[in-house]
């Protein structure tokens, strides 16, 4: 499965309104998990089996909760039997191939 998550702390912004420090802590938890992942300007994508991915999502949310009284989580999941790994790039590769035809 692939999940796209966005974790948004409330009350943890710096003087400019940025929450990047809190988000960085969540991304570090995800990277330290060893699961395939990628971060873009809106979401962090994580790939793996259901239980391991959800455990990482929970750990990342709880990490942000250490410095914020309230945490929002947006999660979108792509669950496809038989496609548990290699899809972070394979899905994009298939779209790029279709664009070339």
Automatic annotation (TrEMBL):
Residues 3-96 form the Thiamine-binding protein domain. Signal peptide: none annotated. Transmembrane segments: none annotated. SUPFAM superfamilies: MTH1187/YkoF-like (SSF89957). It comes from the Bacteria. InterPro entries: MTH1187/YkoF-like (IPR029756), Thiamine_BP (IPR002767), UPF0045_domain (IPR051614). One of its GO terms (cellular component) is cytosol. Belongs to the UPF0045 family. PANTHER family: UPF0045 PROTEIN ECM15. This is Thiamine-binding protein.
């Amino acid at each position: 499965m692939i999940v796209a998550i966005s974790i948004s702390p409330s009350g943890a912004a710096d003087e400019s309104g940025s929450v990047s420090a809190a988000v960085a802590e969540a991304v570090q938890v995800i990277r330290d998990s060893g699961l395939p992942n990628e971060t873009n300007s809106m979401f962090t994508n994580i790939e793996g089996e259901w239980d391991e991915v959800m455990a990482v999502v929970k750990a990342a949310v709880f990490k942000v909760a250490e410095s914020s009284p309230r945490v929002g989580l947006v999660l979108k999941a792509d669950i496809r039997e038989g496609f548990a790994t290699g899809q972070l790039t394979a899905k994009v590769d298939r779209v790029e191939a279709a664009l070339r035809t």
